[in-house]
Structures are given as C-alpha cells and as structure tokens.
Amino acid sequence: MKAICPYCEKPANLKMVKSREEYEIKGMKVTVNVEKFVCMACKRDFATKEQMEKATIAGYAAYRKKVDIISPKEIIHIREKYGTSQKVMAKILDLGELTINSYEQGALVSKSISNLIRLMENPHNFIILFNKKRHELSHTQIRRIESALRDQKVTVVEV
Fold it and tell me: What pTM value is reported for the model?
C-alpha cells in the first residue's frame, strides 16, 4: 500500500504487520495482538485510528477476561432477556440513566457492578429488583417485562 508516512511525510510503501503488544489497563498488564503499518522508507511503525480502536477493544476484552468482569455482549443478552430498554434496566439496577449504554458500548464495568448484572441472569434475582422498582415504571414497561418472564416460564409475584 502506498501512502504518506506520518513520520517522514513522504509518499512511501507501507507494510501492514501484526505483533503482540502489552498494555496497562487499570494497573493490570494485558497482551493483545495488534496490526500496524511500517513505512518502508523510514522503517518507523504507526497505527491508524481504526487500528488503535481495535487494539483498545482487544485490550479491554483481555482485561475483562483476566479479571472476570462481564462483557458488553453479556450485558445486552441479559437486558434483552427481560425485554427492557437500557434506561429501564438502569432504573431497575439503580444505575445512572446512561450507564448501561456506556457499558454496552464497551466501557469497563467495576467488579461489583459486573457481579450485580450477572446476578440478573437468574430471573428470580431480576424479579426481586424489578418488584422494588415497579412503581417507577410505566404500565407498558411492566407488561413488556412480565411478558418476557412468562415466555421464560417464570411467574412474577408482586410484593
């Protein structure tokens, strides 16, 4: 591939290379596979914005795995299991309105919030918190959640 090198600022052939790099995330070292370019003229390597974003995503995934915290896909799965929007799930979990959205977009979750969300995988745990927040939800939201629970053959007993 021929392009302008950001270092020597000359048109040059660029070669894509793959390597393993170590990153520090929240004080923990993780190693991930990354792609970057090497300028064949000055021999310096660099990453594009897209390559840096991929490396960040890979680093966060490695960190999540290493410290055993929930992934964005798992959060989405649990939320969709009960037919809730991000806003409703945040309300049930007593989190900020945009918090679930940021977690689903890839922000790192604390271990305690990760554990709380994982507990929601069990419908009986979900129902306990749902019943505590039911008075803050609309009738439509309540019906949607109760329908999702019925589809899972779970009975909701209002407390």
Answer: 0.85
DSSP letter string, 86-120 = HHHHHHHHT--TTHHHHHHTTPPPPHHHHHHHHHT
pLDDT of 74-127, one tens digit each? 999 999 999 999 999 999 999 998 999 999 999 999 999 999 999 999 999 999
Domains and CATH numbers, the chain: 2-67 (3.10.20), 72-151 (no CATH)
Q: 127 near 117, Cβ under 8 Å? A: no
Decide: 147 and 83 in contact? Cβ < 8 Å: yes
Strands, sheet with 45-46, edge to edge from the N-terminal-most edge strand: 2-4, 11-25, 28-39, 45-46
Q: What is the rounded distance in angstroms from the CA atom of residue 63 to the CA atom of residue 24?
A: 9
